[in-house]
Sequence to fold (161 residues):
Amino acid sequence: MNIVQINESQLQEVKDVLHETWLDTYSHIYPREAVDIITSTWHSLQNLSQQAKDPRFYFAAAMRDGKITGVVTARLDDDQSTVLIHRLYVLPKFQGQGTGAAMLNAAVAHFPNVKRLTLEVESANEKARAFYVLGGFRVIGQSEEKVAGIKTTIIQMQKDL
Fold:
């Protein structure tokens, strides 16, 4: 496995990976129609392209045998000391094999002077929450949001480096 920054020609594959991981991760929380709407909006080719071109973003993929197996998007905060992890998704059959940790480490290495990582994770996403706690993140807050019309609890987490 290697971690590479995304280029424009990979965006459709990225979109497909995000849709598949969202279905696997959130199908017990959101109806299929909601997941389809969320992923078609949040992960539109236009939005993904803007993030891939934005120099503040680190947008990368884990690759195995020429195929994308995971995606990470991170952005340097305005204070220049915090990296916000926007997304970290690994295809289900590659989870538990170090892919997520490798992508997280690559994001940190891309921003070598940062002092902390922050992220938000849905409270019902227990697998991701456990992954982040194992990786040294701690809960620093929570909020209620509506996603696709469904009320959900979002957990804010932080890791000091």
In short: The mean pLDDT is 94.
